[in-house]
């Protein structure tokens, strides 16, 4: 076997590494650090965090973000398992590609445009409101747009797509003989799910749920366009601090809180993936 | 193992979900041809006026040009850097490789808003003025994980023997990459470029934070949406949807085709 020419492969990695360090890692570390400072005062301080916990508008925004992300994750999970099962075990391979494309394609287009198009459907004057009035026969208003549930709805659809995709990609790799063996041993569809498919597709579900949680907890467009501005989520507050008062340390504090929330919620999930991988 | 009734129920669930996902896009497309300024059904009459407005309103066309230039440069840079990185990751062994791969993929696990805010704070500290090129650097970060993942998978599939034959014939590492690896990755490179373009073209948050006065199409759409409704958005949204959809389908088709 010829020996590879002597070149330092580091050269290939260098551009990506410089970019990642200079425009991703350092900015985030700097932002985390900035949250520990305040204007007109030297040294590190926790004053921003005290302010955060002291202000109801800020803690409420955090709770709303959490409620939003958790509801989205639950809804996505409830839909994703049956949908992934359908795609993985109930349709032919050719059809599967087409169905996956149908499910994923709308999400290639801009998040903003999708959120806005839901505005038209969910508004009281939109399709949903008109349909409700027609069914009810009286002038009732839907009152759904500009509420937290409307944000859950908008992001929930995205979550369903993502988690379905991830669970599905784990499910298709399952060796069919395991399922046949389950049937030979007298198992039903339900035991096949519980004993074979569920444990093997769990890593896909965890990754899908983690990514969905991250998007939902940090999204700004859907909560603004569908949730409205009266009861903002953390991302909306963060933006108004940044663009409104230019209080960079406070914006950095809100960003750091978001980082911590994500680490606290997602890290255990990822450790779980590691655990399941090691077992199998 | 799934009974016929369960199978029907699952198919129904799939099609209902798909219908709900497509409903607003269909509604938007219908309204884009409506003469009514507001969404009322049935539409009084049909027109292509709003589509004309997209092209005559200078701000939309300026935004479109900016977006195409920005997304084009971003995906070109991301594809090149991504290829170099993917090739090295497949072939090199060095301490901390796992950690480095993790770092490259990390932007996928951080909300865009955080990347945008951190970059804005960081560049303000460095004294850099917000501008399109700066937004471009931020967007490269955002699409780089995609490029690296796609290209790494492809390069890892290639038989090692072809490259080794080139070396045996005296080719240098770079020469072998140019003559052997690059041609074998052509479809993946094009697909990666298109995919990165689609994501960069629609990216809003980073561009919003890192530009001041330059307007990309997503920023123009956003400011129009939050400052008051303009039916032109329906036409524009429909066009952007069709545009992104065709790019995405082309990229996926290229990625699947190479497997043969």
Number of domains of chain A: 1
Number of alpha- plus pi-helical segments of chain A: 12
Mean pLDDT of chain B: 86
CATH architecture of chain A: Orthogonal Bundle
- Work out the radius of gyration of chain A: 24 Å
* Approximate helicity band of chain B: over 70%
Task: Give the helices and strands of chain B as they follow along the chain.
Answer: HHHHHHHHHHHH
The helicity of chain A comes to over 70%
The structural class of chain A is mainly alpha
Uncertain spans of chain A, ≥5 residues at pLDDT below 50?
Answer: none
Task: Count all strands of chain A and give the number.
Answer: 0
- The fraction of residues assigned to DSSP E strands of chain A is under 5%
What is the H-and-E element order of chain A?
HHHHHHHHHHHH
Would you tell me which CATH topology of chain A applies?
MetI-like fold
Please tell me about this protein's structure.
- The complex is a heterodimer of chains A (280) and B (260).
- Chain A has one domain: MetI-like (MetI-like fold, Orthogonal Bundle), CATH 1.10.3720.10.
- The model of chain A has no long low-confidence stretch (mean pLDDT 85).
- Chain A starts with 9 loop residues before the first helix and ends with a helix.
- In chain A, helix 7 crosses helix 10 (221-227), helix 8 packs across helix 9 and helix 9 runs antiparallel to helix 12.
- Chain A contains twelve helices and no strands.
- Chain A is globular and about 75 Å long.
- By secondary structure, chain A is mostly helical.
- Chain B has a single domain (58-257), classed as MetI-like (MetI-like fold).
- Chain B contains twelve helices and no strands.
- Chain B is globular and about 75 Å long.
- The chains are: A mainly alpha (280), B mainly alpha (260).
- The interface between A and B is large, with 88 and 91 residues.
């Amino acid at each position: 076997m010829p020996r590879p020419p002597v070149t330092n492969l580091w050269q290939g990695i260098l551009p990506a590494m410089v970019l990642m360090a200079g425009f991703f890692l350092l900015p985030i570390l700097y932002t985390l650090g900035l949250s520990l400072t305040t204007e007109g005062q030297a040294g590190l301080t926790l004053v921003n965090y005290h302010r955060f916990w002291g202000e109801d508008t800020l803690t409420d925004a955090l709770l709303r973000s959490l409620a939003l992300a958790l509801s989205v994750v639950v809804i996505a999970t409830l839909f994703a398992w049956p949908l992934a099962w359908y795609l993985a075990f109930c349709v032919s391979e050719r059809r599967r590609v087409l169905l996956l494309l149908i499910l994923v394609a709308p999400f290639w287009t801009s998040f903003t445009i999708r959120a806005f198009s839901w505005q038209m459907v969910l508004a009281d004057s939109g399709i949903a409101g008109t349909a409700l009035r027609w069914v009810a026969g009286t002038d009732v208003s839907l009152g759904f747009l500009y509420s937290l549930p409307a944000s859950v709805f908008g992001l929930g659809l995205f979550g369903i797509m993502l988690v379905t995709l991830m669970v599905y990609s784990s499910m298709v790799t399952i060796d069919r003989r395991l399922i046949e063996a389950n049937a030979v041993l007298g198992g039903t569809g339900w035991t096949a799910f519980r004993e074979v498919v569920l444990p093997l597709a769990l890593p896909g579900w965890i990754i899908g749920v983690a990514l969905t949680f991250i998007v939902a907890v940090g999204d700004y467009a859907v909560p603004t366009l569908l949730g409205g501005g009266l009861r903002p989520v953390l991302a909306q507050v963060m933006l108004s601090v940044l663009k409104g008062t230019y209080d960079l340390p406070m914006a950095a504090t809100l960003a750091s809180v978001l980082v911590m929330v994500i680490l606290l919620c997602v890290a255990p999930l990822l450790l779980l993936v590691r655990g399941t991988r090691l077992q199998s | 193992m799934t009974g016929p009734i369960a199978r029907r129920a699952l198919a129904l669930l799939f099609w209902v979900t798909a219908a709900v996902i497509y409903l607003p896009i269909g509604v938007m497309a219908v309204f884009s041809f409506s003469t009514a300024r507001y969404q009322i059904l049935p539409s009084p009459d049909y027109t292509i006026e709003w589509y004309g407005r997209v092209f005559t309103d200078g701000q939309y066309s300026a935004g479109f040009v900016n977006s195409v230039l920005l997304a084009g440069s971003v995906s070109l840079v991301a594809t090149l850097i991504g290829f170099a990185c993917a090739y090295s990751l497949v072939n090199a062994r060095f301490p901390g490789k796992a950690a480095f791969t993790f770092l490259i993929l990390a932007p996928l696990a951080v909300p865009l808003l955080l990347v945008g805010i951190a970059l804005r704070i960081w560049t303000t500290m460095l004294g850099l003025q917000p501008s399109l090129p700066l937004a471009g650097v931020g967007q490269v970060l955002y699409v780089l994980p995609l490029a690296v993942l796609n290209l790494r998978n492809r390069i890892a599939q290639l038989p090692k023997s072809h490259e080794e034959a080139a070396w045996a014939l005296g080719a240098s590492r770079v020469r072998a990459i140019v003559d052997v690896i690059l041609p074998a990755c052509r479809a993946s490179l094009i697909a990666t470029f298109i995919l990165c373009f689609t994501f960069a073209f629609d990216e809003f948050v980073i561009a919003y934070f890192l530009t001041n006065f330059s307007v990309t199409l997503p920023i123009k759409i956003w400011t129009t949406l939050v400052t008051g409704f303009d039916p032109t958005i329906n036409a524009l949204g429909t066009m952007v949807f069709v545009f992104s959809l065709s790019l995405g389908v082309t990229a996926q088709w290229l990625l699947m085709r190479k497997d043969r």
